[in-house]
Amino acid sequence: MNYLADVAALARKDLLLELRAKETVPAMLLFVLATLTVFHFALPRGAGHVAALGLLWVALVFTALLGLTRAFVPEREQGLMDALVLAPCDRSAIWLGKVLAVLAFLGLAELVALPAFSAFFSAVDGRTVAAVALADVGICAVGTLTGAMAVAGRARELILPLLFLPLAIPIVVGGVGASAGAGGRYLGFLVLYDAVFGLLAWASFEYVVSET
Amino acid sequence: MLTARNLSKRFGAKRVFGRVDVSLDAGGFLLVTGPNGSGKTTLLRVLAGLAAPTSGELQLPAREVIGYLGHDPLVYRELTPLENLELFGRLYRVPERRERIGMLLERFGLWDVRHERVGTFSRGMQQRLGLSRVLLHEPELLVLDEPFNALDAAGADLLDETLAELSSRAFVVATHDPERVERLSTERLAFA
Question: Please, are residues B144 and B134 in contact by the beta-carbon 8 Å criterion?
């Protein structure tokens, strides 16, 4: 119970920070809308639904990357990772709290992105929505871990995409596969990815944030 | 409480400090002095359990009994003092949290601004909040890096008083103003 209460307190803290600073979510919304608008004009007339779906996934992954880049900014700028790491709570609670907050930000961006995609390209079906929801879990789990790795380094703006994007390739494969046709198999693949990488990220966060 | 033998720290080829021996029991007060860049902050991070020594033996108490104040006060600027202390009180499992937080905010003169964002505070007020955060869980080992930083005369006197009251705890304090705490120190480590 203590663990879940810690996670809730940490996630609440991140949501409060965003509610007051209003930096990450507006940037994500603007980015995803701008990207979909660019894709709308860039995609040749007559290009199929599948090609458009591919671009949706590109837009979502890069929007998530934008959110992840900001995820540890308060901790980095104010040295607060030291205070969190010293607290006697399980360190994975720091990761899980951050995952939940980033998941909420990404979900908000997608609440705008999916209707915008429907308006610009074609309607989004239930399979795509399910794939996006499952992909979000994997993106936030892996992205928060790589974000924590990047925050310790000097060239952190470079390190995060370099660490995160290769790990996000299976998510794009699963997402495009699920939304473009062979739904069940690829949705299962995304569930498996979430389970395996979520567990790995949860278990390894402790080693990422602690030097001792 | 804290034992370090032949402790050293390197960043790559650069030696930050070496051959440090410390033995501190409850009531002990280690005063660390030295010029900028001499390794005081790195030593304090090692003694707080935030960084690993490159070599040597180090025995630290459990992290729930360590209180650490770094160069920054380590509080969220977008949150209020109350929200900051609620968060850390929760993470440190502080019993009777509300009462303890209220007492510390009163003591450090922050009660009236408890609902205001820390980002609007002066550096000295942020330092007072940082000290409240450190004392929140009543740590047995306090590791304080320049605790008098940015405090005005009243704030510094208050900290003097607080340190004296907590003299049964163990302290590691780095400061450029050693005269201020010299009377409390039981051990001294001077970096060149």
Answer: yes
Q: B78 vs A212: CB contact, 8 Å cut-off? A: no
Q: Name the percent of chain B in helix, strand, coil, to the closest 5.
A: 35, 25, 40
Instruction: Look at A13 and B71 and tell me if their CB atoms are within 8 Å.
Output: no
With beta carbons less than 8 A apart as the criterion, state whether B173 and B29 touch. yes
Query: Which residues of B are less than 8 Å from A78 in CB distance?
Result: 72, 74-77
Instruction: Tell me the nearest-neighbour CA distance from A64 into chain B, angstroms.
Output: 23
The pLDDT profile of chain B, 192 residues, written as one tens digit per residue, is 899 999 999 998 899 998 999 999 999 999 999 998 889 999 999 999 999 999 999 999 998 999 999 989 999 999 999 999 999 999 999 999 999 999 999 999 999 999 999 999 999 999 999 999 999 999 999 999 999 989 999 999 999 999 999 989 999 999 988 888 888 899 999 987
Q: What is the pLDDT of residue A152?
A: 74
Encode burial over B25-61: b for 16+ CB neighbours within 10 A, e otherwise: eeebbbbbbbeeebbbbbbbbbbbbbbebeebebebe
Structure confidence by residue, pLDDT tens digits, A48-105: 888 889 999 999 999 999 999 999 998 988 889 999 999 999 999 999 999 999 999 9
- C-alpha–C-alpha distance, residues A78 and B75, integer Å: 7
Find the CB nearest B66 among A10, A16, A86. Answer: A86
Q: How many CB atoms lie within 10 A of CB B110?
A: 22
Tell me the C-alpha distance between B110 and A83, whole Å. Answer: 20
* A4 shares contact with chain B (CB less than 8 Å): no
Judged by a CB distance cut-off of 8 A, whether residue A17 touches chain B is yes
A17 vs chain B: nearest CA distance in angstroms? 6
pTM of the entire structure? Answer: 0.91
Asked whether the beta carbons of A114 and A36 are under 8 A apart, the reply is no
